[in-house]
Structures are given as structure tokens and as C-alpha cells.
Amino acid sequence: MIRPRRAAARSTRLFPWLIVACWLLAGIAISPLAFKLTEAQTNNASAFLPKDAESTRLLEAQKKLPGGDSVPAVVVLHRDTTLTDQDLAAADTLRTELRGFATTQLPAVIPSGDRRAALITVPMPQDKDADRFTANVQKMREIAEHTATENPGLTIAVTGPAGLLADTYDVFSKIEDALLLVTASIVAVILLVVYRSPFLWIVPLLSVGIADQMAAGLIYLLAKHADLTVNGQSSGMLRVLVFGAGTDYALLLIARYREELTRHAEPAAAMRIALHRAGPAILASAGTVIIGMLCLLLGTLNSHRGLGPVCALGILVAVVTMLTLLPAAMVVGGRRLFWPFVPELGKPEHIEQIERTGFWARTGAAIARHPRRIWLATAAVLGALVIGMSVLPGVLRQDQAFRNEVESVKGQHLAEQSFPPGVTAPTFVVANVAHADEVAAAVRATPGVVGATESGRTSELVQFLVVLDSPPDSTDSFHSVEALRTAVHAVPGADALVGGNTAVNLDVRDAAIRDRGVIIPVVLLVVLLILGLLLRAIVAPVLLMATVVLSFFAALGASALAFRYLFHFPGIDPALPLVGFIFLVALGVDYNIFLMTRVREEAGQIGHAAGVRRGLAVTGGVITSAGVVLAATFAVLMIFPLVQLAAVGFLVSFGVLLDTLVVRSVLVPALALDVGPAVWWPSHPALAAVPRAAGDVHPAPTDSVAVDDMLTEVHLLAHDSPRHETVQGGELQSDDLQGEHVQGDDLQSDHLQGDHRHHDAPAPPEHGHPRSQDGAPARTGRDD
């Protein structure tokens, strides 16, 4: 019997090492794919549209025209006075040099009426290889720069849809590595501050780093082989979400593990109980975020439909990593990881002090004195912030998307000084060739159109290039496109379609508004159902959802004030409210889940009011730390020189802090105390017969773990081991079978000779249940 037990003990001790080794090997293997994620990005707006959008149908029709599906690059030549004959000759030479980048013959150089500028349009081929496309634009810019150098005073810039696309991709590719480095550094600093240990912070940081690489590698494979739409925005959000949420899960699990180490001799046993207690809340939290993200699949925009699975997979990888790799690594490291603040067996004084006199205990006591006044005042402040939504900026134009000056925007502004504003992003109309004259007349008669010319013809189709008198993607240009569509659709039998960059962004805006109206109600309903199932109540989920929604609108209102008066953003992405809502509702509910599941657990031990206060006291510190980590990681998005990502970063980081420091810490406890036990209606946490003693010490488990115990089956961290244990000065000592003696072929053990104990280990009572130091019945190692 001893040989199998010793083999099982050694196998159990080796199993955490095996888990860690497998994760490390998997992380190393997939890292090369993770670093190639940028190559799989699609950042042109047309790729985000559904197939039935008019702009998408025009793109399909253009493929039937010679060079019709090209991406125009517009080269602007500008002089502050007037262009000289030498400048115009240089423009002709430059046009010849750029022929190799075009899909069709280049049109002639077009000088402006004031002779201060000239345009060269280069129809570049569509290319799924973003690196190659961007490199071609860069080569064109180098050729243009050489021409400008030979003609002092002449300014040349490459703009148009091709220039904007290349600049956008260039921004994402340059910031990718910096984003990862800054995010990891911020998480490392926060973990050092939280744990004040030179070793402990390394374990969660490495775990979340491996999760990040795994998620990025899997997303790359799906983008390459399963047509998953990934853009720079979703790629950046994936990184901060995995780091932020993964670190949150680590903080919550380690906090419960540290608490259990004061009650259990074996780290494996303490981790098993920590997983049993904190695991359901972490899984429920991750599940809520995953389901919320997958609701984006109900959208029509491919950017939404891609963002949902990207973030959902990131959360899935993060939670699996934090519930497998992290526990195994913590068990391998043992108590010494917490040095110099090692949790001592049988000495939970620090935890008891936090529960009685800590900051969050005092906060709970203050709220308990006047809960109704506090929640009414808090709700009023949040309601005041909601008013800020009235100054939310309008739709962001594509040339306004960059926070720093880029060549494409510079070129567009140069062109607008001498040409109609829409010349750098022309609109296209494709119709049946039999009705070409009627369509041309309708186009030219449309208000907002300053010019139209035929730019392609086949035996079936004809295409017109249309220049608008308003800047691309502006409100006026959207009105012009809508008027143009109304006019050409009225031509019988023409089957006319209107597209181009401005039309694409108009369709994106309309689809974003439609998605917002469909997805938000579904997310609210789904999250409400999850809360109801988790808390086994109706009142509590409704109250929690109300607080989360109020928190979101307050964050959006405060962000609107910041966007307009602090950052001076010219506009916002039309998808921002939906993206912000998904993140803040899903992540905001997270913290309410962590708090209220602990409150329900405590209410079953010590009653509702005391349970609310104790739940806030024991979770306040770790949830606040988790909120700060998540807010800090999303704030990293503000280093991007793109307005839409900076706006998402500020909205989510501010909203998370608001939810963590105000809603979860003040509003929810005040509501729970004011409503009373009815908050759990129609169920009620049954009071345990014997309250749990905070200082209970749990011996290591001595019985085999049942096969059907899910957590033990997954982690295999709590199997019995025939070890002699003692506590000496707060340190756990183990004989590891050293009391066994081999005599001949027979194995004799002190375990078989009687109940051998060290004199300084407390002996259990002879009869009845084991007792804690204060005489209360103590929980056993298998208290789950």
C-alpha cells in the first residue's frame, strides 16, 4: 500500500510542473504566429460592410470594368505662388515614373484654376497583402519627394484613399510592439505595488503574457484560414483586454488563495479551495464577457462581427490560462512566492484586521448608517454626468482620424486650397450602359455635385467619376451622397449604384446605428439572465443592471466633455457608443459579480446586512486593484495616434474606474443595504447553523478526492500525500516520507506504527469535530 501511495504523491507533486511546462512550450510554439497578427489585418472601411450594402455592391460591379476595383492614389503638387512651366513639366515626368504602380493608363495631369496646384491620379490595384500595398505607396512617396527636391519651393504629397489606407496601416504596424511593451510594463508596476513582493508579480505577469501570445496566434490563424475580419482596432483591443482581464482574474484568485493559506497547511489544498470559492465567480465573469462579445455577431458590420469573436476568444484563453497555468505555477512556487509577507498557517490576523478596521470595512460601516441617502446622492451625481452626452462630438471624418499630421491628410488639405474638397476622394456611379445619358444628367443635376465625367465603359456597364463640393466624410458630403442615390435610383432600368470612400463611410455609419439598436437590447437581456441564474434572484440582477447602465451613460457623458473640451477631438467613430457599451456593461457586471457572489456567501453565514459589509470589506481591495489594472491597460490605447482608439481607451478606462470606485464600492452596497434581504427575492441565502470563524485552521486533506469533483479533476492539485507536516515559526515543514524505513523487501513506515505527531503541532480533540483556536468547529480540508 505504501508504494502506490508514495508513487501517487510524487505524481501529484509533479503534475503542476507538467502543466507549467506544457503552457510554456505552447507559448513558445505559437509566438511566431502571434507576431504576424498585423499581417492579417484589414483596415479599409469597405471590408467592414455587409454584402448587401450599396457600396459593397458597387465594388462588385466595378470588378467588371477595366481597373474599376482600383484604389486611387492622388498625388498633389502645390506651390504657394503659382506653378511654373518647369513645375508642370516635372509633373508630367513624375506621372510617367508612376505608371508602373497603376492598373490602367494614368489620366493627364490636372492643373487647378488658380494654377497653384496640380493633381495626378494613380489607380492602384487592390492588394490583400497590406505590407506590399503600403510599401508601394511609400515608393511612390520617395519618387515624389525626389521630384520636389529637384524643384525648390514645390510641395508634393500622396493622398487619396490609397494614401489614407497606407498611413492607417503604418500607424498600427509601428505601434503594435510598443502597445505590448507598455501594457506589460503597466501591469508589472501595478502588480509590484499590490503585492510588494519581488517574486509574486512575476507569476501572473508571465501567465497573462502567455495568454496574450496564445490568443494572438489563434486569432492570426482564424484570420488567415477562417475569414475572420481583424483590423487594427480589434487587434489593439485584444491585447489590452487579455492583459487587463487576465490580470483581474489572477488578482481575484491569488487573493482568495492567500486567504486560504492561513487555514490550510498544503498549498495544493489551499489552491483547491480557492478555485472552488473564487472559480465560479471568475467563470461567470468571463462567461458574461464572452457572451456579451459574441452578441456583436448580430451586427451587420464586419468590423463588429470580427471584434466580437476576437475579444471573446481572448477572454476564453485568458480565463483558461488563469485557472490552469496560474494555479499550477502558484503551487509550484509555494508560500515563498509571497515573501516577505508570507501568509502563516493559523495566523489570519491580517485578514481579520482588514475585515474589522480596513478602509473598505470603514466604508461599509459608513454606508450602513445612511444607505438611502448615499445611493440617492450617488445616483444624482451619475445622472448629472449623463447630461454631458449633449456635447458628444459628431461623426469623425477620415482625414480627422489621425492625432498627428500624416502625409495623406497634408495632401488633402493642400488640394482643398485649389480644388473642390471632394477631389481627393471621388464618388463613383455605376449603371447600365443603355441608360448612360439619363444617369449622367441626373448626376450633374444633383445638388452638391461640382463635376462628373465618364471613367469607364463596357458593353454592359458605364462608370462616372463624381466630385463633390464638400470634404469627404463630412455631414454635407453624406447629404450629397444620399441625394445622388435618390436621383440615380429614380432612373428606370438603370440599376444605378453609388459608392466610393464617402459612400462607404456613410454606409458604415448607418450600419453602426442599426447594430446599436439591435445589439444593445440583446446584451442587456442576456446579461440580466446570466445574473439571475448566478445569484438565483430577480431583484438583485435588475438593480445591478440598472447601476451598470447608469454607469455607462455617466461615463459616456463625462467622456463627451473630455473629448470636446480636454482633447478637442473633432468627432468620434459612430461605433464608439456600441463598443463602449459592450465593454463597460460586460466588464462592469464583472465587478458586481465578484462582490455580490461573496456577499451572498457571507449572508448565508452571518446574515444579510453583516454579509454586505463583510463582502465589501474582503473584496474591496482586490476588486479596486483589478479595476485599476483594467483601466490602466485600456488607457494604453490612448498612445495610438488615432482618435477612434484614443476615444475607446478613455471611455472604457474612465468607465471602469467609475464603476469600480463609485458604483461597486458605494452605489451597489447602499442599494443592497437599503433594500435588505428582499434583494435576493425570490430565493434567500440560508443561514448556516454555525457561523464560520475567520481564524479557522484547516488541516491538509487526508482522504482521496472524488473522481467527479470537477475542479480537482481539472487541476489535480489536492491529492493526498503521505507527508508529516509541522508549522515552525509560520513556515511549513515537511518530512516527505522521510519517516519511512526499508528493511529487506518490506517497507515499514511510521504511518503504520501509530499516529506520529510533532510536539508543536496542535492535536485534534479526541472526540467530535476538530476545533479551531477559539473553540468553534473548524472546517475540514474538504469543506466544499
UniProtKB/TrEMBL annotation:
| Start-end of Basic and acidic residues biased regions | 738-772
Q: Membrane spanning segments where?
A: 178-195, 202-223, 278-301, 307-332, 374-396, 518-535, 542-563, 575-595, 616-639, 645-663
Q: Which Gene3D superfamilies match?
A: Multidrug efflux transporter AcrB transmembrane domain (1.20.1640.10)
Q: What is this protein called?
A: Putative drug exporter of the RND superfamily
Short name of one Pfam family for this protein?
MMPL
CC terms in the record's Gene Ontology section: plasma membrane
Q: Which stretches does the entry tag as region Disordered?
A: 737-784
InterPro entries assigned to the protein according to its UniProt record, in alphabetical order: MMPL_dom, Mycobact_MmpL, SSD
The similarity annotation says: Belongs to the resistance-nodulation-cell division (RND) (TC 2.A.6) family. MmpL subfamily.
Keyword entries, A-Z: Cell membrane, Membrane, Transmembrane, Transmembrane helix
Q: Where in the cell is it found?
A: Cell membrane
Q: Which organism is it from?
A: Parafrankia irregularis
